[in-house]
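Limitations
The structure tokens in this dataset are predictions for the assembled complex, not deposited experimental models. Users should treat interface geometry with appropriate caution, especially where small molecules or nucleic acid strands are included. An illustrative entry is reproduced here so readers can see what is and is not provided.
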Amino acid sequence: MSKRIAGVYELGKEIGAGGGGVVYLGEHIRLKKKIILKADKRSLRVKEEKLRREVDILKNLSHTYIPHVYDFVPEDGVVYTVMDYIEGESLDKLLARGQLPAQPQMIQWACQLLEALVYLHNQSPHGILHGDIKPANIMLKPNGDVCLIDFNIALALGEDGAVRVGFSRGYASPEHYGADYISRNKPASAGSIIETQHKKETSRSTVEEDVTAVSSIDDLVEDTQAEECATQVTQTEYDIVGEVQSGEDTAFATQIEAMNQDSTQYEEQSAKVSGSEDKTTTEGKKGILLDVRSDIYCLGATLYHMISGQRPAQDARDVVPLGPEVCSKAVSLILQKAMAIQPYDRYQTAAEMLEAFQTLHAKDVRTVRHKRHKLLVAAGLTGLFLAGGGSTFVGLKQLENRQAALTLAEYSANALAEGKISEAVSQAMQAIPLGKSILEAPVTAQAQKALTDALGVYDLAEGFKDVDTIELPGAPFDIVMSPKGTQAAVVYAYEIAVYDLENCQQIARLPTQQSALSDCVFMDETHVVYAGDTGITGYDLEEGTVMWTGETATTLTISADKKVVAAVDRDADQAMIYNAVNGEQIAVCSFGGQHLSVPANDIFADPQRDIFALNEDGSMLAVSFSNGGLMVFDIKNPDEDLIVYDSSEYRLFEGGFYEKYFAFAARKNGESLFGMIDVEKAAYIGGYTTKDNLILKADAQGIYLASGGLLVRVDPDTMEELEIAYTENALITGFSAGGTHTLTATDDNAFSFYDKGANQMSKVLCQEQCEFVAVSEEYAVVGNRNKPSVRVLKLDAHNDAHLLTYDARYPHDEARISHDGNTFMLYCIQGFQIYDQKGNLLTELELPDATQIYDQQFIREEKDSWLEVTWYDGTVRCYSAKDGTLISEEKKEAPQKDLYEEFFTQKYRIASSLHGAPEVYDLKSGQKVKNLAGEDYLAYVTQIGSYIITEYVGTTQERYGILLDENLEEIAYLPGLCDVVDEMLLFDFKSGNLRKCHLYSLQELIALGASYNI
Amino acid sequence: MLGLSGSEWLFYGGIAVMAAAGVLGMLSVIVFTLTGRALRDRLEQEYGKIRGKKTCPKE
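Predicted assembly:
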């Protein structure tokens, strides 16, 4: 029957015995669990208290890779230590059989052992040192894990560490052998070693204290092991293996064997160790502290043995580093470091060494290289992505800004079409980027064109150019210009605003009758008479004061000499005649119960249906009435009143006095009547009826009659009509004439200017029909009933751009300047004229057989220039541009009859045919780049810098040019362009003028635009 | 060239570069994943599977 220990442990068979005691296989009766009972042989000699203290240290340990000590039981004078039964065999068995673990297996075991060491070393209060790690003390369990066993010599570390008292040769650290050993390995004092250790052990202070600490631990060791290790051993292992049971307990027995292998040489500091150990001992108090690094050395040596199969040399100096044929370099380095002679060269903690193993993958050069490559690629791609994102952002912003610029350019063009020059310039300037940000889009051709057009730098044609658009509180009812045309009064709802046209500033704002019929007339440039809200009012514009007031009136007229004013209220049957200067009432002109036409609603418009006009000196007043009556009142002699129509079916009367003549027009049932009366003779002198609408204006300037698209001046003496304006395909709806220029409004929503010769100077298209047009010598004002604004235009003669004045009657297609700039040649197939700089005609020549001329080319070279004329028969004649002399005549091959031409620039070839848009080809690739706009004939191409100037001939033989940028985008329209010399542009106008200007750079345009509104 | 303005080059070019970077990124992920696995296999073959730093609890 088996023996029971402490009532719960059943003592089984003895499975081993040795220096440490006898080992039994046992069983926990209640738990039915196999255990190991170790009968400590020291129990015979050591006090129970000492044994208990040792076991107490161990029994609190609990770790996967450490056997658990359960109990400490004294029984019958024998002290039993109860612990886990570890199945398996010790690693030294494997080594003995030559079964070396593969490197991965060894690393796995190393990590497990190191985890166990970390656990031990971190036990409170100061950790536990195993002290004797070697293959024999490592059990390999069936599951492949290892377990660190045999804590017989394990020591609780004090604050200053513990003193090693035994060692296993080859596995023991140098400090196991004592201070001298270390000193021999490296000439350093024990003190310095200790000091180095102090780097990790913060509580140490002096060597003396260390020694003291050592001594105290010595005592512990002495107590526990002095009796046990009585035998002097000089070998690493000595065989005290007890009987090992066979059979099923083989593995178990191995454990027991290992546990009982007190083969480890326990040596006290004062033990009888031969050689150096003795010396160390004899030196007495110079103890060497063991610490965790000693365990690290032991483990390193154990791993060294396991991986290489070679037991490490006892002398650490003789340990040969493992080569690549044994293990990886990284593993070899770990082992080298673990087995460093000096403790401070080793891993300072088990955790550190564990980390070294655990980070083998991470710190492997291939892993590092892989990570570096990943990082580089990631950084590169991230950079690429960010660069792409940045580029996209900048591009997007630029496109947005470009779109905004295009919109602004369009707005600018619209504003220009409406005559709002300031606004057009302002918007064009906004469309030009400042160039201060990368987010700004490059200048667009559209923006540059908008600015060029708004500034009108290339429009050198003589004519009226928009100055500004005056915004009004309401839509105009009428526009009246002062006699000299420097000021304009605009009548709108219940007010009259007078503007100085020089600066478009308002001079006065005058309240009127609550009727759209309210009139305003100028006496001179500084005085007006108007239908004031309190009555007819004379007003001094300079002083800003009312000169006089009269009775309530709406419709006014002033004599041509500006001395007499007639006024009538909207439904009154009499007119009041005033002295215009002082407001004195001169006379009252009774209408005999009749009154002017009064519209049902005179709030929104003045239909101007009636004649109400004074003659030159204010002695005669012509009035039409709502019943179709028409009378000419003699102010001074009422008996001499002239009745043209007592009443009639005619309505919509227009008319007035010119000298002694009274001209009128009226309309009834689709028929218009024009009549002329000699008021002095009281005789109807002529007239006619027509189905066309007639518009008549008669004043001191003359009698002007518009019918359809024709405007004529009627000579009352001869009744002859002199054309002063003609519009094709449009009806004249209003006009202003009498001065040096005529302004017409037409039903195609346009207004046109004509010079004295009835030549159309310009035509301006509007969005709506212009009902009100007024022109003077220098200014013109245009408005319509629906828009609360009026356009102000100013005559621009471009005197500063003047180059030559020639006979405008001479028909020609082209004009060129000679190479030296001294002469100008005007030519067409009929012939040519040559002028000098002063405008003197030098030569005029008719070309022979003009109908057979194929082409004319003006050739300008550095030292000469001439006109080369080619006939269809191949005859080529050259005429000097200097004096028109025939320079040469030769017969060449007859040219082809088509008009296909090619022009070359630095980058492009431009093909021009008579019909179809010119085509542009890239010179290098030969690929077609684009078609140039326009269906007109491309006559010439000139490249100036990066600009390309194309010259066209329109269907009506008008010439113009288009300025293109390097991308062939239109950036300017060049009306009348006839020649390009260097950067000078020449313009030919039908008025008989050659003008010039230079090619404006973008910077110049921006500067002009910036200064425009200042 | 291609009739694009500088801004359009920046915009569309940037998108193309981003797309290329994205594609290359995905390719890189695949390549590095595969090479990483191969490397891990080689390392595991050489060093074995190494557990983390966490100390294994008591079984």
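Some entries come with short summary sentences. For this one: The longest helix of chain B spans residues 6-47.
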